[in-house]
Amino acid sequence: MVVYASSCSASAWNTPYSADQTRSQTLFSSFSESPKHLDPVVSYNSNEWAILSQVYEPPLQYHYLKRPYTLEPLTLAKMPETTYFDAKGKIVAEAYPKIAFTEYLFTLKPGIQFQPHPAFVKDQLGQFKYHHLDSEALSKIETLRDFKQKDTRELIAADYVYALKRMALRQNHSPIFDSMARYIEGLTLFSETVSNAYQIELSVNDKTTKTHFFNLNKFDISGVQVIDKYHYKIKIKGVYPQFLYWLSMNFFAPIPWEAEAFYKQPGLVEKNLTLDTSPVGTGPYQLVENNPNKRMRLLANPNYHLETYPVDGLAEGADSALLNDAGKRLPFIKEVVYSLEKESVPLWNKFLQGYYDASGVSSDSFDQAVSVSNSGSMRLTPEMQKKGIQFLNMIQPSILYFGFNMVDPVVGGYSKKQRKLRQALSIAVNFEEYISIFLNGRGVTAQSPIPPGIFGYQSGQAGRNSVVFDWRDDRLQRKSIEVAKQLLTEAGYPNGRMPDGSPLTLHYDTAATGPDSQSMLNWYRKQFAKLGIELVIRATDYNRFQDKVRGAKVQMFSWGWNADYPDPENFLFLLYGGNAIINTNGSGINSANYDNPKFNKLFLKMKTMKNGPKRLAIIEEMTLLLQKDAPWIWGYHPKSLALYHHWLHNVWPNPLANNTVKYRRIDAKERILKQTAWNQPVIWPMIIVFTIIIGSIYPLHLAYRRRQAAIIKISAKNTQSENT
User: Fold this and answer.
1) Stretch 247-267: mean pLDDT, rounded?
2) If we measure between CA atoms, which residue out of 354, 391, 359, 357 comes closest to residue 673?
3) pLDDT-based confidence at 669, cuts 50/70/90?
4) Of 560, 536, 534, which Cα lies nearest the Cα of 546?
């Protein structure tokens, strides 16, 4: 009994986790959308990068604490060394007016190892043990855990170059290839060569891209050179300062060719064991469970190289406790459990029970969590403060927008009438109201693609979208619905009617399918109904939604963009014609297919300039074009509100850094105490019910015993009489 009582008091009765997990450095988190791609050359979504960025390591990363956002080496011994050349190949100074090429030299830290993996295992003869699995061996394999042996090898420069080669292979559909091909010398020619060669091999061998390993090591990129084990070079055309930012992204993370060869075996593909589901990296964590319908689980990489918590760089106004772990080895957390939570209410309840270490705040739980003062400032409610919950609040370098497919014959196009239709809709869809109703004020209405904190953003009257807003009483004021109706009439749809008198019907594709989304979708219908337009909602799961957008098979849609790097080019390139989906076989990032030659010309001029008055003037001109053409309803820049329990340490907002789990630390003892206190079983109803049951049974039992005793007594008398 003593042992039982002790074990019960050590953890809550209703905990969804094992006792070992709760007691250890395990982070409990959640996800709402299943990741579609975990292949770093393909993945470009935040829900995927939340996993990938803990597994893979590109050459650079953002300093966790510094502001402004600052790059630093991750797997490099030092920042890349830069050399400039003129058209004749002569080295010139950075200030030289006609730089033809920029060359980056990368120096790797020695001794970095990949996570343990069966792809690296060799037999006594030096041959790969698991690269040619027969049917008998495959019959015993369901997950990577079923392989009896795992091995590793050192990270080398060729692994980073191999990743670039995979990016250039058209069959891999990398979303940034076309952007990089404009810069990396020889990448376009390399892509044409290897893509054609791969297609020929597929035809000859009657294979698919999923089950055929194409050895990219046989080909070279003229502008990319492996110098030795720890050094490689990348040569880019002209000057492109933002290239260093790209080197902090997963697209440039190293890929060991052995892993790709291993995963291309048909038997493994059939079991859904691929590079797209089971990544292989050098990062602080390895993905050991990938069940997108239930749970994703990371474990600390036992081979992780030496990396320590920052010792400086604390931003002004930040909590000094963020440096309590300065100089200590990373990662602190040894396991991360992501559980699928499709609805906000159960997620919130589990957070309050202490079963999630951190949480966002949905509209349903906002009033319970946060109180807003008359001045608009936010603070936690007394209930949250009593629990020791803490929060971070900041405007994200992001934009959530409502897009038009510019190749659609109704909502697309560049004629005056087509522009006026989109302008009318831009006025009618009131995102201030959306922010108030669905976000509890956690957002700033966007005037252009560029968010606050990024060069080129302008607040107040200077940044006003004059197509949608007036400036009155020193603030933005949305134009009246009457202005929108007049624009709609000029577009050829008076009162929202077609020339034949039928209502104009438009189609909106969305991945918002859950019960929490219905009120939001109804709100969109009402916005269009203000103009007499019927809005048809076409809802589907997120993966199908991505396919439709990338196939240009939508009319209108909502999507968003988180900053990859702190530069306006990272937002304006979302509308550059060269990145349009229809111009890149579905791999581009311009989902609206906006393609204005004047905008394109200005973009190409602006993108390599350094920040300053001249660059700002070009950005202003580009912004005016966008506001007039209205390829997006500009939507809003979200304010993030993250709540976390006091036992979760080193929490700091860094939206550009995706690999932040390694910095977090858990006070597991405190978590157990609070989980137990907050989840005490309510047993008094059970006691009452039990007492009533006993009270009801006891008289019956007593009567039964009396009756049995009487029967026995009578039986004894009868026996005695017979014997007499």
Assistant:
1) 96
2) 354
3) very high
4) 560
Residue 392 is which amino acid?
A: L
Alpha carbon separation from 14 to 150, 293, 354 (Å, rounded): 37, 22, 11
CA dist 214 and 538 (Å) reads 39
Among candidate residues 281, 255, 262, the one with its CA nearest the CA of residue 119: 262
Q: How far apart are the first and last CA of the chain?
A: 55
Burial of 35 (0-12, 13-18, 19+ CB in 10 A): buried
State the DSSP code for 705.
H
What is the DSSP code (8-state) at residue 42? T
Amino acid 688: pLDDT: 74
Please count the residues of the chain. 724
238: left (phi over 0), alpha (psi -120 to 50) or beta: left
What local confidence, expressed as pLDDT, does residue 8 receive?
Answer: 38
Please report, as a single letter, which amino acid is at residue 77: A
Residue type, 369: A
CA distance 55 to 25: 18
CB crowding 515-528: b at 16 or more within 10 Å, else e: ebeeeeeeebeebb
Whether the Cβ atoms of residue 104 and residue 60 lie closer than 8 Å to each other: no
CB atoms within 10 A of CB 715: 10
Angle, vertex CA 592, rays to CA 178 and CA 657, nearest 5: 60
Condensed to tens digits (0 to 9), the pLDDT of residues 599-624 reads 999 999 998 888 899 999 999 999 99
Instruction: Grade residue 209 by pLDDT with cuts at 50, 70 and 90.
Output: confident
pLDDT in tens, 449-466: 999 989 999 989 999 999
Is residue 40 within 8 Å of residue 346, measured between CB atoms? no
d(CA 306, CA 156): 17
Is residue 466 within 8 Å of residue 478, measured between CB atoms? no
Residue 701's φ and ψ, nearest 5 degrees, are -65, -40
**CB 504 within 8 Å of CB 494:** no
Segment (H or E) for 344? helix 344-352
Residue pair 60/369 in contact by the 8 Å Cβ criterion: no
The larger pLDDT score, comparing residue 10 to residue 72, is at: 72
The b/e string for 559-588 (b: 16+ C-beta within 10 A; e otherwise) is bebbbbbbbbbbbbbbbbbbbbbbbbeebb
Chain center to CA of 194:
30
**Count helices and strands in the chain by DSSP H and E runs:** 23, 25
